[in-house]
Amino acid sequence: xxxxxxxxxxxxxxxxxxxxxxxxxxxxxxxxxxxxxxxxxxxxxxxxxxxxxxxxxxxxxxxxxxxxxxxxxxxxxxxxxxxxxxxxxxxxxxxxxxxxxxxxxxxxxxxxxxxxxxxxxxxxxxxxxxxxxxxxxxxxxxxxxxxxxxxxxxxxxxxxxxxxxxxxxxxxxxxxxxxxxxxxxxxxxxxxxxxxxxxxxxxxxxxxxxxxxxxxxxxxxxxxxxxxxxxxxxxxxxxxxxxxxxxxxxxxxxxxxxxxxxxxxxxxxxxxxxxxxxxxxxxxxxxxxxxxxxxxxxxxxxxxxxxxxxxxxxxxxxxxxxxxxxxxxxxxxxxxxxxxxxxxxxxxxxxxxxxxxxxxxxxxxxxxxxxxxxxxxxxxxxxxxxxxxxxxxxxxxxxxxxxxxxxxxxxxxxxxxxxxxxxxxxxxxxxxxxxxxxxxxxxxxxxxxxxxxxxxxxxxxxxxxxxxxx
Length: 470
Known about the structure:
Elements: H1 2-27, H2 31-34, H3 55-58, E1 63-68, E2 71-75, H4 79-88, E3 93-99, H5 103-111, E4 115-125, H6 126-129, E5 145-152, E6 159-166, E7 171-178, H7 182-192, E8 196-200, E9 222-224, E10 233-240, H8 243-250, E11 257-263, E12 266-271, E13 277-282, E14 287-292, H9 303-316, E15 323-332, E16 337-346, E17 349-352, E18 362-367, E19 371-377, E20 379-381, E21 387-389, H10 396-405, E22 413-426, E23 431-443, E24 448-453, E25 460-462
Parallel strand pairs: 17-22
Antiparallel strand pairs: 1-2, 1-4, 2-8, 3-7, 4-5, 5-6, 6-7, 8-9, 10-20, 10-21, 10-23, 11-12, 12-13, 13-14, 14-19, 15-16, 16-17, 16-18, 18-19, 22-23, 23-24, 24-25
Helix pairs in contact: 4-7
């Protein structure tokens, strides 16, 4: 009798479950009806290979210089660069203090010491630069920003010296750090470095003189090769992200988004059910800017929290359509956050341009308890469609001769590094993006230009805006 009652109870429960499931099925609106974007329905944009997992991958320096007894070689983003970054970011900085190195110390550092120099193309606020290291601790650095991190020393018991250098404020903060397997790190860097480079300080002749290092607390040193480096010219087919995809990514209820045409090629999209989310779009330039003011910040956030928020947000829709690295930061703690710019790198080189599609080379984000601003181009290119043509960069002598002809002051050069200048090319069937190898010339006042090999191959030619900004 008990077994019979137990069976009836089980049958009743199963039947009730089926009825309840049916009621929920027919009473709940479908995804299309509700308009709510589920995580599974968010359309991915970029390839999985470009998504970031940790802050140090996003805040990695775009170039690492390997110094060995006066010999210098450049390591650009790639497999070996990635391994070095993964090793170095575990370092914990200890006992930081500001120092004033003498000209003799600078000369010894550049001509005698073995080490690694992490070079950023723009100054980063000190608290942002510190996020590269695993410790992530606030060390109380008095200087405002850094653009170079020089690691050197014998590595006894894996203990090394670290100089955090600011060319802009002419300050150096010295610390010590523990880097596991430092000898192996240096061995890898030695194998990964490119062709030999010559150092230039205050002039068109390579080499270091102690008198050249006088007058500045921190000397501006840039490095150029003696020969013409072979760097291929690349061509990619352009692709476009659909606006419907961006609406599904950025709005909780994409079906309730209203399109308003402002003027010409400018549109604005707003959510009629939820205030605070706005998407502006220029159809001609394929440039969008998203704002979310729905949740005002309650407290000030740290750069580590903001960068982690950016990584989570971008990975949610595979937003990195290439290898983007942190390029610059505009700090605005008064409004509860900072603006972060990330630059596209192809084959290890930073990309600049094209003018037709502003934003194709950079992605900008602001984060504070969520992403509050997101700017990018909806045009990108597939890395599976590249074609290569042989090309070369100008030699060091050709670069400096060209800068001299422009009437520029060589002592005012802050950095010179290799990059790609982008331009669009249209055929009957498609639009393409051509990446031309150039030297990027940056001056102390922030002005920037590009030098490429001339058609004859015998000299360098200016490819920046006309007239030149010098």
